Amino acid sequence: MNSALQYNLSPYTSFMRETKVDLGNGIELHVEIGGEDHHPTIVLIMGLGAQLLFWPDFFCKSLIDQGFRIIRFDNRDIGLSSKIKHQGPRLNTLKLMGRFALGLDNRGAPYDLYDMADDVALLLDRLGLDESYVIGASMGGMIGQILAARHPQKVKKLGLMFTSNNQPLLPPPFPKQLFSLIGRPESTDEEGIVSHSLKVFKIIGSPDYHNPIESIQTSRKLYRRSYYPAGVLQQFLAILCTGSLLQLDKQIQQPTLVVHGSRDRLLPPSHGKAVAKAIMGAKFELIDGMGHDIPPHFIPNLSELFAQHFKS
């Protein structure tokens, strides 16, 4: 690891340390690291509008206890990482979504997922990591696919959760789930944002494992840490202006495990199956009852699946 970086204890969990990493491309990422320095490293890449805290502490600790060092971070435009100020013309999101679904190219976003994958590659360089295991969730899984294809020397094995390669004509997200994620809250004070977040968690999450009290606590913690809705929109535009990853998937040589929930209505399971089919030798695991989230109930199984994949 880079010994020049200054670390503080994470204010959110006792077994993680936090730091800021200047990537040298105008972006600074906020990073948390846990586990022993000499243990193999797993880099966790989170999804659309999701701060690093969306990787549950229980999930991180489960992997640390199985002999791994964990790195989680805020992507650009979210959490405590750099925000992108875009001065370009306003884009028609609905038009971009229609073109995206048909596999047509989109342009005009301030950045795309290739830029975000380059952020991760630069982060690994700055941390002094030659090679790591990677787990990407949702949009983070898309970034993980790009990272594995375009920076193969940096990714030893790949793990993907409830993600897609966005190839044309895949079943679209259910409207209720999609528009809950990108929709606007009724107000932008803390109570309005917490109320909106609760609705999102319930709509996109695992239907039989929603914990309202835990969701309220998480929503307040996230709001007080950072609230930047412009970043959510810009990350969504990045997805729409990246398009299909199908041809990139065919370039991935690393052993890959794709995990998807049977009750995911934001990205239905056929998306994960399409990724696994496109990547040579990839394995697919369908988790019965899981939605587009990581509830405590599923964490022992999930962490064991990924640990076995990386150790095998």
Automatic annotation (TrEMBL):
<protein>
    <submittedName>
        <fullName>2-hydroxy-6-oxo-6-phenylhexa-2,4-dienoate hydrolase</fullName>
        <ecNumber>3.7.1.8</ecNumber>
        <ecNumber>3.1.1.10</ecNumber>
    </submittedName>
</protein>
<dbReference type="InterPro" id="IPR050471">
    <property type="entry name" value="AB_hydrolase"/>
</dbReference>
<dbReference type="GO" id="GO:0046503">
    <property type="term" value="P:glycerolipid catabolic process"/>
</dbReference>
<feature type="domain" description="AB hydrolase-1">
    <location>
        <begin position="40"/>
        <end position="294"/>
    </location>
</feature>
<keyword id="KW-0378">Hydrolase</keyword>
<dbReference type="GO" id="GO:0050357">
    <property type="term" value="F:tropinesterase activity"/>
</dbReference>
<dbReference type="InterPro" id="IPR029058">
    <property type="entry name" value="AB_hydrolase_fold"/>
</dbReference>
<dbReference type="InterPro" id="IPR000073">
    <property type="entry name" value="AB_hydrolase_1"/>
</dbReference>
<dbReference type="Pfam" id="PF00561">
    <property type="entry name" value="Abhydrolase_1"/>
</dbReference>
<dbReference type="GO" id="GO:0004806">
    <property type="term" value="F:triacylglycerol lipase activity"/>
</dbReference>
